[in-house]
């Protein structure tokens, strides 16, 4: 790393800080003490916790439990009194008047709210971009470990899927359907102004005060080459003015995988019956063990169920201390989160601490430090993966006649039936695999932000920040000789250990000048800034095997060190940026924002180092015009339009270089020599992916904003997609990394917030619906399609469509077989009947006479979310739901779980397969007769039999709470609640319990961006029931 | 204004240091900009050019050159159906459409050969511009030329016309080239080998395992024989025989390398090098050639490992009854080449199946062995010479070379007479002497005997499937498309054809 450079930056930063400190001036004025009580207009009850601020300053206080306040103010100053849910009121201080009583009116409008935007904040009314915010209150109570889980169902235009139930993992967040072909597609997460490089889902959600999701290019383009996937701004907690609060939030509960929704597999008797029929239908002798299926009636072995834990505990403790008094604003959040998984031997623990401090050195200078250390321990068995790698998949299709426990009640090691039973794979005991294989990660992270802000004159501010993110992750896995996660590996097996240590450091220095000025009705804000960011990761991986003793999985205890699995690796990138923005409005109703960022990145080729990302947006608050001003129905109306260009620089650190691999070793005689070869082609023009986006939206408020409606239409074109363009391997290379192609994305977002009922019983609704579409307009020269194992991405179609042969049924009888196109030498009566797409009379898979076609779409027609909040006296309740309509999944596991050769246990539906022309079954599964030559077609050739509708509607969360009113003096508030997460999933999908599932791999391959919606039966998402208490002192 | 000085200062510093800050080169990998600068770099580069040969002989050559002939077949395991790619090769039913095939083995053979070519081209394009020891440079260059020629010779025999890359590809546009005529490919091979012969060291001086002058001469002779340029073959081969650097091993079994010993022995002209262990240099071809399913207990005596694992799936490269019958009575090579193993789980009747004993060497860890695989042995040099002479009408001079090979096999001198008779004797001798060394298909191909040999072979299998390892179960018979594609060349790999505008 360039330490010299880092030290230069540091020196510069501290120098700047010092000068600003020296220039501080403290001012004083004439003041009087003002007292008052704030009451609620409708019921005349005191309002505790209302904010009383002197307008235009940071001075202020908060009302106490009786709604009372005291503040020092000068005559002529204006007190601004605000509280959530009420209209803000301004009261002037009159000389000599020491008592001010204020009655607040209920407000349904949040337009005066301040919204966090990129590099600053804006009044919601004046926002011209497409931004959605979620605050702390909306996120509380949900018993989950990560932020993304809490956001499910709340955001229009954002699809958040939980693709696996592994604690702390598997959240896929896609803003406006954005996808890269092979680069990253996750949004940029910015925590307190710092674009982080780590995983957002490891952050304690209780540290978060609010979240802004920036969707259109005008909102995001200040993040330049990293903004194309959208930006999520996270602001952590601060103290409330004038208050000191100690809050304890504790919840605990348990998790289960509901029986309903699991993939239904055959039980032992059904399986034995299947095997019996298999041999009978093939006119072969039935092996003795299957001659009497009834003998297994009470001897079922549900391998999948054996992997699960019933009532796995989950607990969270958070202690939050905030104080904002006498120029110091502090928040300290200490959290402990402990989740045992619903799969045997899963353990996830997080210990987190955050200390946020702002100090007002003088009226002109503020400094602040946020520091958030964290430790996460995670042990998750190797649950996910395809046959032979994921133990849940393995458990699903293990023969249920094989015993989990032996006669002594001990877990078996290994099960194998005689070869004449068709048992070609031996099955280790997967429960043992889960219990005995260590697969743990220990992560330590520290996230720190520091800043100094200097306001030399009114309206002008200089802010310098220095942010650091340090993380260290230590992965250790040990596979003892007594267990394996692979199929068909005899026990004892070769013990293997892997140690993988990754440490990374990211730092960012930003220097920003802001100037605000109003001249008559013209208001300006200009922002100028530059920044440098550097990231470096160092990785050491050691893989060793063949242990003399499983109790000592040390490196020195291994007989072999595996060279292929042992390496060091360094990843580094740097980013230098200059950015500016102009906000202008006239009378607060004609709004204009323009911004530009220039990014230079080490990832870009030497001939293409700098990218420019401009944007502009305009808004018109129509309701401020005369013709709408006194309209009794329409209380607010704003039209917005924006256009901008953003980039995606997730193209890999060294993709532009031609790399030489010097481990292509050879041996001559007994002499091992190192060998070296060029493994990739250089591209000095390699650059970022470019997205140009247009957004048109409007915000409407009706009936005093009791009903608010937001609509956005967007259209964007992503070009220069990073793609490893396949080239003929006669060149000696497999691909050329290039920026290619164009994908168009467009969509509509609707969001509505309404308050149908207020008063003693109140009800609010927040609903949203989004339609996201895409179409591939071009790929590389001479390439109009990219195939995956089960997908195609083709010009003129949405990307990542399921691709294979179209199933028409099974050949019903000899006549049907004779008169239909078939596969020479393979099709038989009862085997899968496929569509002859090219009409040549023969069914062909691949090659020039390919009959494959698009057989399904993993993308939904629309997604939607619905949040209802109810309040009655001291009770509150909320229901959060979300859904997806029209999406399909590729039930990939059927290649094993419906292997008609009886090699594996099978889905229960296969009982109703084709057995004879008279007994054709339900038409899903074909004949077993003919062995692999026949059954292999249905199993090995991707076809529409694998594709199933996976539309769903999920009740994500139901929470019921009770707030106590009669409290001891020392307690400010207390609430008890009960919460249920993932309560019910309504879906017709039958391939497993999670219709949001998707294989998650990076890059171009299977499970990557072009290969969504593949179900391999991963870790189930549990139903969680918790009880909690939230007490503030 | 003074107040803003720090800001301006910072801004100017920022701009000046940008370029350094934004240049981040990979630290854990070399890049082409810094490589190919000295002798060591080129030596490493030529070492890497050998590496694809391991993959070729371990995973592909026996499928394309041996099981695609009458010498070996696959042994059906009815529980496995999805092995079309291998079966299609053994069954002469490789599917073709518009001159391309999706057969994965054809594809990978193509790719591995071109990988050798690309690595050799990289060396040959740059080596003359870098100054280092002339002898070392000649040796590297000679090896690179040999390897490029060898790869093109494989391609020419498998595919006929192929793209001729002679310089490294540097951009996407250069990646595909038009097909060159066979004559052009052969001209290049001959020119490369003629250039390589004087550059390469002879066997006594070269590091064992690397290609030598003798290897280059033998390869060139093979090329000439393929082209029926008999006198050229004789001429280039003569120094190999007269050099005295090569001789037949005393017994046939000794001609083949052990797991760790007897490598690059006196009979070896060129062999692909393997090494047992965890370094990734091992082979496992004998495991791929097992009749299956085989239990651990049945496998252990064959391999001698401490951790045998049962093997399922289809058996591949199983010697046919034809090759077993091809050995003359008393031929010592028969028992040295073919062994038998009893499989309790076999579906075949009887449950005893043959396997290629001559390459099965004892080793310690399952699925990991170190015996080398021959490309050229001195026995073949002798048979080449016999053939080159006989075809020129020098039948009398040819017969002693043939007899040298026969004598070592414990057989009497050949009784064949006349050019045609000796031609047939040499052809038969090659079959048994070089059995399972991936020569058979090429021999059938170059002698234009595909129809004559393969059609009856197919008919024998169809007439009596169980003699060819089909189990006595309903439906276990050759597939309907067996023996329908008897083309001289394989079709071009479809995956490559999709990416190339030229074929």
TrEMBL record, chain A:
Residues 124-231 form the TonB-dependent receptor plug domain. It comes from the Bacteria. Residues 415-982 form the TonB-dependent receptor-like beta-barrel domain. Keywords: Cell outer membrane, Membrane, TonB box, Transmembrane, Transmembrane beta strand, Transport. Its main location: membrane. One of its GO terms (cellular component) is cell outer membrane. PROSITE patterns: TONB_DEPENDENT_REC_3. It is found in: Cell outer membrane. Pfam families: CarbopepD_reg_2 (PF13715), Plug (PF07715), TonB_dep_Rec_b-barrel (PF00593). SUPFAM superfamilies: Carboxypeptidase regulatory domain-like, Porins. InterPro entries: Beta-barrel_TonB (IPR000531), Beta-barrel_TonB_sf (IPR036942), CarboxyPept-like_regulatory (IPR008969), Plug_dom (IPR012910), Plug_dom_sf (IPR037066), TonB-dep_OMP_SusC/RagA (IPR023996), TonB-dep_OMP_SusC/RagA_CS (IPR023997), TonB-dep_rcpt-like (IPR039426). It is a multi-pass membrane protein. Transmembrane segments: none annotated. Belongs to the TonB-dependent receptor family. This is TonB-linked SusC/RagA family outer membrane protein.
TrEMBL record, chain B:
The keyword DNA repair does not apply. It comes from Algoriphagus boseongensis. The keyword Transmembrane helix does not apply. Residues 350-453 form the RagB/SusD domain. Gene3D superfamilies: 1.25.40.390. Its main location: membrane. Keywords: Cell outer membrane, Membrane, Signal. This is Putative outer membrane starch-binding protein. InterPro entries: SusD-like_N, SusD_RagB_dom, TPR-like_helical_dom_sf. It is found in: Cell outer membrane. Residues 20-224 form the SusD-like N-terminal domain. GO terms for cellular component: cell outer membrane. Belongs to the SusD family.
């Amino acid at each position: 790393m360039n330490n010299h450079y880092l030290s230069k930056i540091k020196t510069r930063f501290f120098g700047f800080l010092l000068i600003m400190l020296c220039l501080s001036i403290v001012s004083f004025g004439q003041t009087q003490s003002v007292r008052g009580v704030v009451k609620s207009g409708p019921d005349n009850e005191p309002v505790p916790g209302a904010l009383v601020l002197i307008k235009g300053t940071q001075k202020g206080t908060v009302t106490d439990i009786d709604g009372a306040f005291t503040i020092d103010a000068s005559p002529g100053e204006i007190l601004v009194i605000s509280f959530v849910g009420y209209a803000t009121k301004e009261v002037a201080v009159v000389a000599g008047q020491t008592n001010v009583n204020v009655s607040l009116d209920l407000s349904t409008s949040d337009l005066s709210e301040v919204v966090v935007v990129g590099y600053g904040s804006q009044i919601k009314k004046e926002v011209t971009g497409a931004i959605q915010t979620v605050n702390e209150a909306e996120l509380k109570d949900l018993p989950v470990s990560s932020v993304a889980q809490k956001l499910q169902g709340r955001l229009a235009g954002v699809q958040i899927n939980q693709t696996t139930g592994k604690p702390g993992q598997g959240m896929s967040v896609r803003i406006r359907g954005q996808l890269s072909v092979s680069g990253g597609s996750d949004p940029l997460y910015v925590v307190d102004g710092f674009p982080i490089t780590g995983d957002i889902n490891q952050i304690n959600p209780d540290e978060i005060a609010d979240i802004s999701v920036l969707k259109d290019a005008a909102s995001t383009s200040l993040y330049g080459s990293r903004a194309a996937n959208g930006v999520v701004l996270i602001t952590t907690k601060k103290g409330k003015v004038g208050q000191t609060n100690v809050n304890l939030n504790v919840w605990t509960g348990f998790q289960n995988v509901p029986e309903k929704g699991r993939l239904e597999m055959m039980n032992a008797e059904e399986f034995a019956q299947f095997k019996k029929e298999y041999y009978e239908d093939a006119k072969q002798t039935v092996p003795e063990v299957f001659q009497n299926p009834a003998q297994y009636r009470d001897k079922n072995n549900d391998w999948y169920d054996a992997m699960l834990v019933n009532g796995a505990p989950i607990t969270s403790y958070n202690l939050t201390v905030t104080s904002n008094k006498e120029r110091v604003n502090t928040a300290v959040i200490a959290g402990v989160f402990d989740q045992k998984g619903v799969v045997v031997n899963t353990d996830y623990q997080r210990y987190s601490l955050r200390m946020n401090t702002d100090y007002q050195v003088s009226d002109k200078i503020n400094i602040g430090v946020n520091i958030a250390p964290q430790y996460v321990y995670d042990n998750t068995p190797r649950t996910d993966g395809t046959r032979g790698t994921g133990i849940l998949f393995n458990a699903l299709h293990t023969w249920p006649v094989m015993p989990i426990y032996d006669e002594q009640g001990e877990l078996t090691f290994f099960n194998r039936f005689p070869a004449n039973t068709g048992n070609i794979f031996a099955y280790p005991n997967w429960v043992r695999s889960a219990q005995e294989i260590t697969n743990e990660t220990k992560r330590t992270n520290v996230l720190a932000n520091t800043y100094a802000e200097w306001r030399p004159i009114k309206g002008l501010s200089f802010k310098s920040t220095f942010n650091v993110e340090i993380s260290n992750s230590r992965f250790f896995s040990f596979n003892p000789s007594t267990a394996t996660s692979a199929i068909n590996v005899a026990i004892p097996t070769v013990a293997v250990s892997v140690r993988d240590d990754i440490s990374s450091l990211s730092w960012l220095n930003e220097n920003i000048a802001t100037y605000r000025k109003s001249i008559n009705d013209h208001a300006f804000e200009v922002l100028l800034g530059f920044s440098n960011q550097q990231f470096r990761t160092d990785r050491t991986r050691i893989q060793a095997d063949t242990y003399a003793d499983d109790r000592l999985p040390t490196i020195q205890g291994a007989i072999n060190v595996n060279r292929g699995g042992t390496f060091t690796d360094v990843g580094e990138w740097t980013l230098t940026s200059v950015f500016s923005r102009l906000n202008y409005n006239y009378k607060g109703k004609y709004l204009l924002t323009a911004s530009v960022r220039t990014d230079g990145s080490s990832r870009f080729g030497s001939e293409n180092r700098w990218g420019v990302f401009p944007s502009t947006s305009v808004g018109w608050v129509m309701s401020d015009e005369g013709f709408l001003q006194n309209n009794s129905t329409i209380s607010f109306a704003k039209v917005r339009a924006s256009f901008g260009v953003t980039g995606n620089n997730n193209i890999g650190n060294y993709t532009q270089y031609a790399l030489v691999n010097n481990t292509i070793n050879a041996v001559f005689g007994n002499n091992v020599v190192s060998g070296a070869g060029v493994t990739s082609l250089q591209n000095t023009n390699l650059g970022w992916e470019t997205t140009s986006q247009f957004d048109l939206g409007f915000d409407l408020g009706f009936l005093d904003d009791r009903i608010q409606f937001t609509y956005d239409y967007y259209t964007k074109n992503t070009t220069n997609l990073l793609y490893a363009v396949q080239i003929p391997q006669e060149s000696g290379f497999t691909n050329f990394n290039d920026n290619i192609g164009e994908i168009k994305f467009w969509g509509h977002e609707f969001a509505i917030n309404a308050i149908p009922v207020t008063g003693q019983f109140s009800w609010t609704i927040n609903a949203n619906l989004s339609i996201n579409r895409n179409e591939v307009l071009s790929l590389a020269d001479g390439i109009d399609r990219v195939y995956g194992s089960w997908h195609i991405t083709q010009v003129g179609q949405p990307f990542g469509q399921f691709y294979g042969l179209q199933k028409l049924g099974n050949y019903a009888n000899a006549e049907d077989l004779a008169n239909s196109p078939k596969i020479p030498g393979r099709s038989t009566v009862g085997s899968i009947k496929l569509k002859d797409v090219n009409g040549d009379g023969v069914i062909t898979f691949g090659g020039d006479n390919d009959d494959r076609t698009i057989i399904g779409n993993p993308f939904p027609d629309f997604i939607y979310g619905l949040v209802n909040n109810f309040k009655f006296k001291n009770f509150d309740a909320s229901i959060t739901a979300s859904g997806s309509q029209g999406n399909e999944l590729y039930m990939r596991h059927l290649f094993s779980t419906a292997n008609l050769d009886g090699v594996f246990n099978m889905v229960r539906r296969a009982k109703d397969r084709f057995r004879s022309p008279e007994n054709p079954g339900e038409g899903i599964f074909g004949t077993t007769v003919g062995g692999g030559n026949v059954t292999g077609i249905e199993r090995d050739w991707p076809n529409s039999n694998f594709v199933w509708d996976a539309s769903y509607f999920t009740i994500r969360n139901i929470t019921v709470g009770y707030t106590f009113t009669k409290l001891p003096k020392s307690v400010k508030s207390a609430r008890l609640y009960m919460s249920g997460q993932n309560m019910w999933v309504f879906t017709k999908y039958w391939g497993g319990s999670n219709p949001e599932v998707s294989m998650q791999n990076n890059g171009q391959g299977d499970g990557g961006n072009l290969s969504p919606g593949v179900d391999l039966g991963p870790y189930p998402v549990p139903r969680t029931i918790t009880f909690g208490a939230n007490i503030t002192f | 204004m003074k107040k803003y000085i720090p800001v301006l200062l910072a801004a100017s510093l920022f701009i000046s240091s940008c370029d350094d800050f934004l240049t981040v080169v990979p630290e854990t990998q070399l890049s082409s900009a810094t490589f190919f600068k000295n002798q060591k770099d080129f030596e490493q580069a030529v070492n890497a050019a050998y590496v694809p040969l391991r993959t070729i002989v371990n995973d592909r050559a026996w499928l394309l050159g041996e099981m695609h002939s009458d010498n070996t077949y696959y042994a059906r395991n009815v529980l496995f159906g999805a092995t079309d790619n291998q079966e299609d090769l053994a069954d002469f039913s490789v599917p073709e459409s518009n001159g391309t095939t999706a057969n994965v083995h054809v594809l990978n053979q193509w790719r591995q050969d071109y990988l050798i070519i690309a690595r050799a081209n990289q060396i040959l394009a740059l080596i003359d511009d870098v100054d280092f020891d002339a002898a070392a440079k000649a040796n590297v260059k000679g090896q690179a030329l040999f390897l490029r020629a060898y790869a093109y010779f494989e391609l020419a025999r498998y595919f006929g016309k192929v793209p001729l890359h002679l310089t490294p590809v540097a951009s996407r546009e250069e990646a595909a080239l038009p097909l060159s005529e066979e004559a052009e490919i052969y001209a290049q091979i001959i020119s490369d080998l003629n250039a390589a012969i004087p550059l390469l060291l002879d066997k006594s001086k070269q590091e064992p395992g690397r290609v030598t002058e003798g290897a280059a001469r033998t390869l060139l002779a093979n090329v000439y024989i393929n082209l029926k340029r008999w006198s050229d073959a004789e001429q280039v081969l003569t120094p190999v025989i007269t050099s005295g650097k090569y001789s037949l091993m005393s017994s046939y079994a000794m001609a083949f390398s052990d797991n760790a010993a007897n490598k690059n022995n006196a009979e070896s002209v060129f062999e692909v090098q393997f090494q047992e262990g965890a370094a990734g240099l091992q082979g496992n071809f004998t495991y791929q050639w097992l009749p299956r399913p085989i239990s651990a207990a049945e496998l252990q005596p064959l391999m001698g490992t401490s951790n045998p694992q049962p093997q399922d799936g289809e058996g591949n490269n199983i010697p046919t009854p034809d090759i077993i019958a091809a050995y003359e009575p008393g031929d010592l090579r028969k028992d040295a080449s073919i062994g038998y193993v009893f499989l309790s789980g076999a579906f075949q009747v009887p449950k005893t199946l043959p396997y290629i004993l001559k390459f099965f060497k004892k080793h310690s860890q399952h699925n990991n062995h170190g015996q080398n695989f021959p490309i050229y042995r001195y026995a073949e040099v002798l048979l080449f010479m016999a053939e080159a002479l006989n075809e020129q009408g020098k039948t009398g001079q040819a017969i002693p070379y043939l007899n040298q090979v026969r004598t070592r096999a414990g057989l009497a001198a050949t009784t064949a007479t006349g050019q045609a008779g000796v031609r047939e004797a040499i052809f038969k001798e090659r079959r048994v002497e070089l059995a399972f060394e991936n020569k058979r298909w090429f021999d059938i191909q170059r002698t234009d005997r595909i129809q004559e040999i393969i059609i009856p072979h197919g008919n024998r299998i169809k007439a009596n499937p169980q003699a060819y390892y089909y189990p006595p179960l309903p439906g276990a018979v050759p597939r309907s498309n067996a023996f329908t594609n008897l083309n001289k060349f394989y079709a071009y790999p479809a995956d490559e054809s999709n990416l190339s505008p030229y074929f």
